[in-house]
Amino acid sequence: MSFYYTRIVHFQDTDAAGVVYFANVLAMCHEAYETSLIAFGINLKVFFSNQEVAIPIIHASVDFRRPMFCGDELSIKLMPKGWGDDEFEISYQVFLKEVGKMWVARANTKHVCIHPQTRSRQKLSDEMRRWLLSFGSS
Length: 138
Prior knowledge:
Helices cover 24% and strands 32% of the residues. By secondary structure, the protein is α+β, with helices and mostly antiparallel strands.
């Protein structure tokens, strides 16, 4: 199963050449991630201020097929996959609505669960394991 997030490219997302600045694609993908958590019933305020659990991104990458411009309507497909009990990866495909099924960018983020004070790895929370399972991932 996948999660889809729709978004319009804003002027602030673009660079001096008028195309989406590369780092902003990762920001848009993170918006899709946050929206999927909300859709699953996770309270973002609690999630991101938790004193017992943090889930930082330890790797990110993005590849581009064609440029995106201000006003373009994007559909971002989010596909998480669990890697053991303390980390997961999210693959994203970014589509232009007007082009259809052809992706214009692909991104990937890898996340690890840690204790915020000790910075040591720990198991994902039950809530996050259920979120991963909702995508058919363990």
